[in-house]
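Budget justification note: compute hours in this period were largely spent on complex prediction jobs such as the one shown. Inputs:
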Amino acid sequence: MTEPEPGDLRDEALEALVRRSAEQVRRLAARYGLEDRVDEVFQEVRIRLWRSGAGHGNLAEAPASYVYRTALSAAVDLLRRRRARRETPAKLERPSGEAVFGEAPPADASLEDRELGDLIEQEIDALAPDRAMVVRLHLAGYSREEIADLLSWTEPRTRHLIYRGLADLRERLRARGIGPEGPA
Amino acid sequence: MVARFAERVRYIGVQHGLAGSDVEDLVQEVRLRLWKALASGEKILAAPASYIHRTAVSAALDLLRRRRARRETPARLSRPSGLAMLGESASADRMLEELELQEQVGRAVDALIPARRSVVRMYLAGYSREEIADLLGWSEPKTRNLLYRGLADLRERLTAMGIGPESLG
Amino acid sequence: MSDERLRLSYDRLLAVRAAMSSAREGCPEVDAMLEVLRREGTEDARLQLLDHIMACPFCQAEFALLKTAGTAQPPE
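Corresponding output:
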């Protein structure tokens, strides 16, 4: 599914309103270091407005309150989705295949989610310790800035370790026959 | 004793922002320093926790300074790190106090009575009195009252733990 | 000790807790957080939830996002 460009929205005034709303919420969220998440939320808002297929008329009637209602509902759905991907009955967090591979695991995967989660857990354990910690934090939903802040690392180092950590993990999982192409 | 000591040293490492292999390096470094200083397993076993703690903090600071000397531009921080707060030349003693303080603040907050505790937590998490009142649907006077009492309780507990208003500003 | 000093110490304490453990335990559902924001449910229940939220770095961030996304006023 492609992201609609701002110019695709038929009502330019509505797009301007979404932009203004996003800016306002971002200012509030800056206090908590949540700008990235707010950007995510407003991307979602744009998608919903686009999907609603409302003509110029409908949305133009009550745009402001609609955007703000949509923003909250988008935030809720975002958080629910993130949690659903990571929730596990066991004490340790289990990363989803999506989080590791950047795409959904194949529909015909023969391994159960739980087994896959176990395997991913094992392979994370086998990573070099600093990469393992960064990968865990990343999969738990922390942004790069949050991880850098938590561990008092520089941004370049954090970025590098997330990249290398995930690359290592993918490599290890492929060696065990698990990858986007499906288990061997 | 070794397991307990190693875990404690790791915790100190994480508090200083070390991670992964650096943390293990810290454990090794502390072992080395203890052996150099005390030269016998018996003496190490008998060493008080504060001595080990002090050694660990000092080693962690040295490790951090060595890494910072090699570092590029620092990450953008939304909140200052413990080390940034105390300055580059923080002594081990100062750092030690800071770390103990964090845990003591945590324990003291945990021990507050429930109604005051939630309000104090919200305040410490960065919410203003107005935001707290709004969140709970309370009047300003009620919120102010509970918050002031909660903070007073907290400070009383910290004083009883040996942390007074003059400590660390 | 000043309020600012207390806040800094508390903040670092939570950051360390988060770094030491990547697991979430006992966290309320997103819907429960929404109820707190809307002031639904008993006051006691809300206070208990807020007590956890404000002691848990994961919940704190989620709650803050919900709060800011939902309470910004339309520009006039």
